[in-house]
Design goal:
The protein is of the alpha/beta class. It has helices at 2-26, 39-42, 62-83, 85-92, 97-108, 137-162, 167-182, 185-194, 200-220, 232-244, 305-323, 325-329, and strands spanning 52-59, 116-125, 128-136, 222-227, 248-249, 257-268, 274-285, 288-300. The strands form 2 sheets. A 5-stranded mixed β-sheet has the order 5-4-6-7-8. A 3-stranded antiparallel β-sheet has the order 1-3-2.
Length: 336
C-alpha cells in the first residue's frame, strides 16, 4: 500500500516538473526583427542641382565611407569632363585622346573636397557603414579656383627663373613645367562645370602656351659633336644615340650644345698587352662648360690600334645604353 502511494507521488512530481518547464519554454521572447535597410542606400542617388552635388559611399567605418562618397561625387564630374575633352583638344592638340583621358582620371582623383556635409548615415553592420554627403558647388568651385591661381603662379615663377639658365637646364625645366601645366586641365574643366562664368578658354590657353614654349625650346636644342681623329668612333656613337632619341645633331656649332672629345692611349706591354684609352669629354653652352667627364676604356692590344679603337667603340656604345648618356658623359638631359 505504501509502495503504491510513493509511486503515485513520483508520477505527480514528474507531471508538475514537465508542465513547469514546458511553460517556461513556451514563454521565451520572440527574436527581435532586424530593421530594414533605409531606402536611400538602395535607391538612386539624388540628382545634382544647380547649386548642390551629392555622393554616397559604403565602407568598413564612417571615415572610409565618407572618403568613398567624396570619390563618387568627384568621379561623376570626371565623367562629365571626359566628354568635354574633344573641345579642349582643339585648343592644345598636344596629347592623344587616350593619354589625355588617363591624365584627367589621374588628376581628378587627386582633387580634394573640403566643403561638404554628411546628410545621412547608417551603420549597416558591425563592419559596414553607409553615408550620403552633399557639397555646395559654388564653395567647391571657389576652393578650386584659389588652388588653380596658386599653381599657375608657381609655374610662372619657375619659368621666369629659367631665363638666365643654360640651354639644357631650360630644356629640362620647360619640359617638366609643360607637363605640370598639363595637369591643370582637369581642374580647369571641373571648375567650368561648376561655374559657368569661369573663363575656361583663357585658362586652357595658359596650358597651351606653356606647351608651346617647351616645343620652341625643344626645336632650338641642337647638338654639335666635335672630336679629334682618334675620338671619331666615340663621337659617332654619341651622335647616333642622340639622333635615335629625337634630338637634332647639327654640323654647325652655332647656337648648339657643343660636345668636345679628345682621346689619348697608353699601351702596357707584357704577356697580355693592354691599351688604356683616356677619353676626355667636355660639354659647352657657348663658352660655359655645362658637363663633361673623363672616361677610361681598356682593351687587349694585339699590335693593332685600329682594332683597339673598334672594340672600344663597341663597348662605349654598350655603356651608353646600359648607363645612359647622362651618367657616361656627365650631362643632365631629360630623355624620357
Amino acid at each position: 500500500m505504501q509502495s503504491k502511494k510513493v509511486n503515485a507521488y513520483l508520477v505527480l512530481l514528474l507531471t508538475i516538473f514537465a508542465i513547469t518547464f514546458s511553460g517556461c519554454a513556451g514563454s521565451k521572447p520572440a527574436p527581435a526583427k532586424k530593421a530594414p535597410t533605409p531606402k536611400w542606400i538602395t535607391s538612386v542617388l539624388p540628382s545634382d542641382t544647380a547649386t548642390t552635388m551629392y555622393g554616397m559611399g559604403i565602407g568598413k567605418n564612417r571615415e572610409i565611407a565618407i572618403n568613398t562618397a567624396l570619390s563618387d561625387m568627384v568621379a561623376k564630374l570626371g565623367t562629365s569632363i571626359e566628354s568635354s575633352y574633344h573641345t579642349d583638344q582643339k585648343v592644345t592638340n598636344s596629347y592623344s585622346t587616350l593619354e589625355a583621358r588617363y591624365i584627367i582620371k589621374s588628376e581628378v582623383s587627386k582633387i580634394k573636397v573640403n566643403n561638404y556635409k554628411v546628410i545621412k548615415s547608417y551603420k549597416m553592420s558591425y563592419r559596414e557603414f553607409a553615408v550620403m554627403i552633399e557639397t555646395d558647388k559654388k564653395k567647391f568651385a571657389e576652393g578650386l579656383k584659389a588652388d588653380l591661381k596658386i599653381r599657375k603662379k608657381s609655374i610662372e615663377q619657375k619659368y621666369q627663373a629659367l631665363k638666365s639658365r643654360d640651354i639644357l637646364t631650360r630644356y629640362n625645366g620647360k619640359k617638366a613645367l609643360s607637363k605640370e601645366a598639363d595637369t591643370l586641365k582637369p581642374m580647369i574643366l571641373m571648375i567650368s562645370q561648376l561655374d559657368k562664368t569661369f573663363d575656361r578658354d583663357k585658362n586652357l590657353q595658359f596650358v597651351a602656351d606653356k606647351q608651346k614654349e617647351f616645343l620652341s625650346e625643344q626645336k632650338n636644342l641642337q647638338f654639335f659633336v666635335k672630336s679629334d681623329k682618334k675620338s671619331t668612333p666615340f663621337a659617332n656613337k654619341i651622335k647616333n644615340y642622340l639622333a635615335q632619341n629625337g634630338f637634332v645633331v647639327t654640323s654647325s656649332s652655332s647656337h648648339a650644345v657643343v660636345i668636345k672629345l679628345h682621346t689619348k692611349e697608353n699601351i702596357t706591354r707584357g704577356n697580355i698587352s693592354i691599351a688604356v684609352l683616356t677619353l676626355n669629354v667636355g660639354v659647352y653652352d657657348k663658352r660655359d662648360r655645362i658637363g663633361g667627364k673623363t672616361i677610361i676604356l681598356k682593351e687587349r692590344y694585339n699590335s693593332s690600334l685600329a682594332s683597339v679603337y673598334k672594340n672600344a667603340a663597341v663597348h662605349f656604345e654598350q655603356d651608353i645604353k646600359s648607363q645612359g648618356i647622362n651618367n657616361l658623359i656627365g650631362i643632365n638631359l631629360d630623355i624620357k
